[in-house]
Structure formats: C-alpha cells, structure tokens
Amino acid sequence: MTQIVVAGALIDGAWLLVAQRNRPPELAGRWELPGGKVAPGETDEAALARELKEELGVDVEVGPKLGVDVALSDTLTLRAYLVTQIGAGTVHAHDHHALRWVTVTDLADLDWVPADRAWLPDLAALLTAEIGGL
Is 7 helix (H, G, I), strand (E, B) or coil? Predict the structure, then answer.
C-alpha cells in the first residue's frame, strides 16, 4: 500500500508561500511546499487542510491538484494541490525553519527539495498567469 504525502501551493496574487525545512538533515535548509502525510481513512484534502493548520496556523480551502504525482519511494507518493487561505490569520512557521513569499522570478533561485522541483513549471505558469491578470 502506498502512503500519500500532500503538499499545498498557497498562492496569493502573484506570490507563492514556500517553507524551509528543519529536518531530516539531508533536506534541512531546502525549500518546499508545506504539507504532510495523509492518515488512514483521511482524504487528501482533509489531510492537507489539517497539516497546513498545524504547520502554518491558518485555515485553507483545498483546490485542484497541481502537476504530477512524485514517487518518493516504492511506498511513498507526493501529491500537490492548490490551496487558498480562508478566514483571518497570518502564516507562521510552526514546523519549518522559515517561510517566504516568492514570485515567479524567485523560483529558480531557491534550493528546492528534489521532489518539489517536478512542480516548478506548473508553479511558474500559475504565477505568470497571475502577473498577466493584474
């Protein structure tokens, strides 16, 4: 059975929220979309909303899937979704070293965790579309 890990692309206008990992040592200091593991009996959407509430301290609405699933191992799959913050609140790094709002021009300069690099073209297209719509 494959364990699903979900990640959220929180986009606000032309800005994307990224999180800098604390652990494990081989990924510490690298940037990612925040998220976590789906618990047994939990939907991807419920897990992502729970994880982002725990990690960022804000409520989100989970939208459409982003890009392709990424195989982390034979038993672990990473899946991303677009998310929108709902309600009041400011994001805080509860489980990460740092949080940062970035634009499309920042994406290539970040030291991403390898798995999240699969979504860079999708994220760039979304952020570019937001710039065009402003």
Answer: strand
Task: Characterise 51 by phi-psi region: left (phi > 0), alpha (psi -120 to 50), beta (else).
Answer: alpha
What tens digit of pLDDT does each residue of 14-28 get?
999 999 999 888 999
pLDDT at 134 over 70: no
As to burial, measured by CB atoms within 10 angstroms (0-12 exposed, 13-18 middle, 19+ buried), residue 41 is: exposed
The pTM of the full predicted model, rounded to 2 decimals, is 0.93
Phi, psi of 91 (to 5 degrees): -65, 140
Sign of CA dihedral 15, 18, 32, 88: negative
Q: Which two tokens stand for residue 104?
A: 């499309």
Q: Residue 85 and residue 89: Cα distance in Å, rounded?
A: 9
Distance CA 9, CA 82 (A): 5
